[in-house]
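Schema walkthrough. Field components (list of strings):
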Amino acid sequence: MKLDETDKAIIDLLQSDGRMPFSSLGPRVDLSPAAVRQRVLHLIDQGVMQIVAVTDPTTLGFTVQALVGINIDGALDAAAERIARIEEVDYVVIVGGRFDILIELVAGDHDHLLEIMNEIRSFDSVRSTELFTYLRLEKQTYNWGTR
Amino acid sequence: MKLDETDKAIIDLLQSDGRMPFSSLGPRVDLSPAAVRQRVLHLIDQGVMQIVAVTDPTTLGFTVQALVGINIDGALDAAAERIARIEEVDYVVIVGGRFDILIELVAGDHDHLLEIMNEIRSFDSVRSTELFTYLRLEKQTYNWGTR
Amino acid sequence: MKLDETDKAIIDLLQSDGRMPFSSLGPRVDLSPAAVRQRVLHLIDQGVMQIVAVTDPTTLGFTVQALVGINIDGALDAAAERIARIEEVDYVVIVGGRFDILIELVAGDHDHLLEIMNEIRSFDSVRSTELFTYLRLEKQTYNWGTR
Amino acid sequence: MKLDETDKAIIDLLQSDGRMPFSSLGPRVDLSPAAVRQRVLHLIDQGVMQIVAVTDPTTLGFTVQALVGINIDGALDAAAERIARIEEVDYVVIVGGRFDILIELVAGDHDHLLEIMNEIRSFDSVRSTELFTYLRLEKQTYNWGTR
Amino acid sequence: MKLDETDKAIIDLLQSDGRMPFSSLGPRVDLSPAAVRQRVLHLIDQGVMQIVAVTDPTTLGFTVQALVGINIDGALDAAAERIARIEEVDYVVIVGGRFDILIELVAGDHDHLLEIMNEIRSFDSVRSTELFTYLRLEKQTYNWGTR
Amino acid sequence: MKLDETDKAIIDLLQSDGRMPFSSLGPRVDLSPAAVRQRVLHLIDQGVMQIVAVTDPTTLGFTVQALVGINIDGALDAAAERIARIEEVDYVVIVGGRFDILIELVAGDHDHLLEIMNEIRSFDSVRSTELFTYLRLEKQTYNWGTR
Amino acid sequence: MKLDETDKAIIDLLQSDGRMPFSSLGPRVDLSPAAVRQRVLHLIDQGVMQIVAVTDPTTLGFTVQALVGINIDGALDAAAERIARIEEVDYVVIVGGRFDILIELVAGDHDHLLEIMNEIRSFDSVRSTELFTYLRLEKQTYNWGTR
Amino acid sequence: MKLDETDKAIIDLLQSDGRMPFSSLGPRVDLSPAAVRQRVLHLIDQGVMQIVAVTDPTTLGFTVQALVGINIDGALDAAAERIARIEEVDYVVIVGGRFDILIELVAGDHDHLLEIMNEIRSFDSVRSTELFTYLRLEKQTYNWGTR
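Field assembly_structure (string):
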C-alpha cells in the first residue's frame, strides 16, 4: 500500500495519542471526521498501523521478559515464521550479524520461560539460542514520525 | 501504582483494539462509560499504558532499522538514561548477557544511521557497539494480556 | 513448601553455624529445643536446606576443580538432569546467556578430568563444552540470609 | 594445614550430615566423642571446613541469582579480593579461560541486582562483566569425599 | 604463468588507467603499439589481469552490499567453488581465522539479500553465516603495483 | 550525480570489457564514438567508475594479502578516513556487525605486514584488529550490472 | 617412570646443550661417562626426553606455520590421537578453554596448508577449526629446568 | 644465513637424533667428521638450530603448562619482545587471528601461574589474556625435515 502525505500526517498524530477523537484528528489533516475515520480504518485493515495499548509487561504480572538471539540452520524466513507462531513471542525480526534472528518474549516466571525456550529449541531449524534477560526497560516510544 | 482486576481487564481489551469506544469498553468491565474513561486516563497519566499507533517504520520511509548491542564502562543505569535521550532511539533496555544494553533505532538512510551511531559512540560510557541491521520484521504484537 | 518467619530465622542462624545446638537455637527463635529440632528436621526432609561440611576440594586431595559452560541441543531441563547424574559434578544450573548450562566439577587429576569431560560430551544433547579451570578459590560463603 | 586420614574421614561423614552428633561421629572414626569434637572445632578454626545450612536462595525470597563472568585489567588476585568484599557476592574464583574471574551473587530483585552490578563495575580493575541469570538450579551437593 | 619485468610494468600502468591507448602504453615499456597490444591480450587471456569498470554498486541502484563470514563443514575449496557459482557473489576468498570463507555480495533490496542468503545457507557444506552490511564504502583502489 | 539509462548501459558493457573501443561501445548505446567517449570521461571524472587492471596480487610478487576486522573507539567515519590514507590498504568499508570497519591490504612479506599492522594500531581510534590471512582467492568479478 | 635427582640434573644440563659429551656430563652429576650414557639412553628410550635439533621452520623453506584451535564432537583423547597421526602436525595438546585441542603445523605453501586443513576437517570428530597464522616467531626455548 | 643442501641434510638428521656422533653424521652428508662438526657448530652459533633435550614438563615436576592468547594495545613486536623476557615463558609468536600473540608457559603450581599471569598483565601493552590450560600433551615432534 502506497501512503500519501495525509496518511502520514494521520499516523504521525496517532503515534502520540492513539485515542485522539476523529473530531480533533479530522481538522488537523483537513478532512471531515467521517473521512478521517475512513482513512484510519483503512490503514488498520491494510496492516500499515495498529492502535494498541502498549505497556511494560513487568507491571502486569510478567516477571520475566527477554530478547533471544537465535542461530538457524538453513532458510531464515521459514524459521522466522515458525517461531512467530508461538504466542508468548511478541516480536520476531531477521537480522544481519552474529545472530540470524532476534525475538522478544514475555513469561510469567522462570519455569514458564524454560517451557517457551524448550519449544523454540525443539524446532529442527533452531541451532542455538542466547538469552538476554531484561533488568530494566528504560525507554519505549513509538512516535518516530514519518518521512 | 498497584493494578486491580478491573485495570487489568481494561488493559487487556485495549491491547487488541486501542480505540475501542468507552461505550463498548465500560460494559465489558462492569463500569459506566464515564468511569471507564476516568480509569483509562489515569492508567495513561501514571505511565502504566500508552495508547499509540504502532507501525513498521520501513513502510513510513525509514529504510534502516536496527538493534544495537552496547557494552558500557561503569554504571549501567546512567548510561542507559543518556542513550535514551537520543530521539531516533525508540527502545532502550538494560540486559544480562554478552551485551549490557540493547537498543532499537530507526534511520532514514545509511548516512543518518552513521550519524546516530557516532553520537552514541561519543559518550564516555559507551565502550563498544554492535549493529544488527533489520532484514525483515516478521512479527510485532502487543496483546500479551495480563496476569 | 511455604516458609514462615520462624523457619527463616532458623535458616539464618544455621547459615552461620550449622552445628548450633538445639538448646541454643530454640530460645533465639522462641521455640523449645524439641520444637526447633522438629522444624529443622522438617526443613531438611523437605529439601529446603542441607546442613553439610563445605570445604575447598583442593585441600582434600582434589587437584582439579572447574566450572564448565555447556551448550545443548534441544530441551534444557532434560539435558541438565542427565548431566546432574554424574557423581563428580556437584553443581548444575540452567542459565540465560552465552552458555545454556553451567556446572562445577571436582577431579583427582587431569586424566580423571578428561574422563569426566568425555562422559559429559558423550551425551547426544551436549553440543559443546568450555572449561574454566580454577586457579584460586577466593570466597565461598552461604550466609546470605533470608528475605 | 596437613590433613591425616582421620581428618578426612571426619570431613567425609560431615559432608553428608553436618549435624551428626559427636557421639555417632566419634566411634565411626575410632575416637571418643570429646576427641572428635576437638578435631571438628580445629578443622573449622583452621578454615578447612565450614558446617553450614545450604539452601536454594530462590526459596528464601531472593528472586535473582546469577553467575557473572568478569574480565579484569591488571593483577587478578587483588581484583578478586576487592570483589569478594561485597556482601551479596557469595562465591569468587579466579579461573583460566574466556573470563578471568567468575562470581556468584544473590539479589532480592532486578533493582537490587543492578545496584550490585554497578558497584562491581565501579572498580577500576573491572573491565567488563557478563551476567548469566539462573533459570533453574538442578543440583547442589557437597559430598565429593576426600582423596 | 611467469611474469617478466615488462609484463609487470604494463600491469602497473594499466592499474592506474585501464584505457591507456596502446600508442601511449608501448613507448613507456619500450615496445611497439602492436607488441604491447599482444602482451596485454595475452595477460588477459591467461587470467593474470582483467581490465574492467569498477564502481560503487550503491550508485548503480543496488541498495544492499555486504561481506559475509562463512563457516564450513568439511573441505574448504569445494565449498568455496560452490558458493562462487552464485551470480550475486562477486568475491570469494578462503581465509585463516574466525571464519573459513569471506565473500562479498550485492543485492537490489533486503528481500533479494534474504533470497541470496537462503541459497548460500541451503548448501550442506555451509554451517553458518554472519552478515556485515556496508554502511559506507570509504576506499577502493587497485593500483598496488607489482614487486 | 544522477545516472540515466545510457550511463548505466555504458557501465554495464565496460564491466565486462574495460577496453572496448569507443567505436564498438557507441553503437551499442546509440551514441556516436565521440559522444560515448565524452560520457565515459565524465563518468570517470565524477568518480562513478574507474577503468583499471584488476589482478590477483599474489601473482605479482605480493605473498601476503589479508582482510582485517577493526574495532574503533569513537566516530567511525573519521577513523575510516585515517586508515584509508595508508597506501597498502586498498579497500576500506564501514560495516554493521561484530567489527566496525573491514579493510583489505596487500604486503610483500610478513615483516611488511607487521609494519602495516603496527601503523594501523598506532592510531588512537583503533582499539583492536583481527587479521584474516588469504589462503586462496576463489572469485573476483566486477560485472554485477546495474539496476 | 619416576625420576630421581640425578635424572633431573642430567635433563637440566642437556636442555641447554643437547650435545654435551658424556665425558663432561658425567662429572657434573657425579657419574662416570659410561654410567651417564646409560642414564641418558634410558631417559630417551622411556620417552621422558628427546634430544633433537630444533629450528625455526621458516628458515628451512617452510613459508607457512600456524597454530590451529580445534573444536571436537565427542571424546577428546580419541580425536587428539587421530589428528596427531598427520605428519605435518608437529604438536597436539588437549586444553581447557574456548578450544578443545590446539595443534601446530608446518606447510610448504598455502596450497599445502589447505590440503592439511582439509584432511583435519574430514574427520567426523572435528567440528570446526580456527587458524592462527604465524607472523613472527619471537622466542623458542626448552631450558625450563626441573623441579 | 643462507642454507645449502648439505646444511639441510645435517639438520634433517639431527632432527631425529640430536646426539648422532660426528663420525656417523659426516659420512651421511659426504663430509669428514671434523668438517661436519664445523658446520654443526656454525649452524648453532648462527641461531639456525638448537640441539637440546625436549621433555614434557609435567614429568619434571611442573604441574601447570598453558598456552595463553594475548591481545595487545599498539605495536605487536615491541610487546612480544617484552613478554619474551619472562623466564617462565618458553614460546612467543605473533599471529594473525582472534589473538595478537600466543605464548606457552610452564609453572610449578597454580600460585606460580598466577604470579606469571600478573607479571604479563602488568605491562601497559597487554590488554587481555586468555588461558588454555594443558590437560594432555598428545604429540611433540621436531623432525619436520627441510624443503
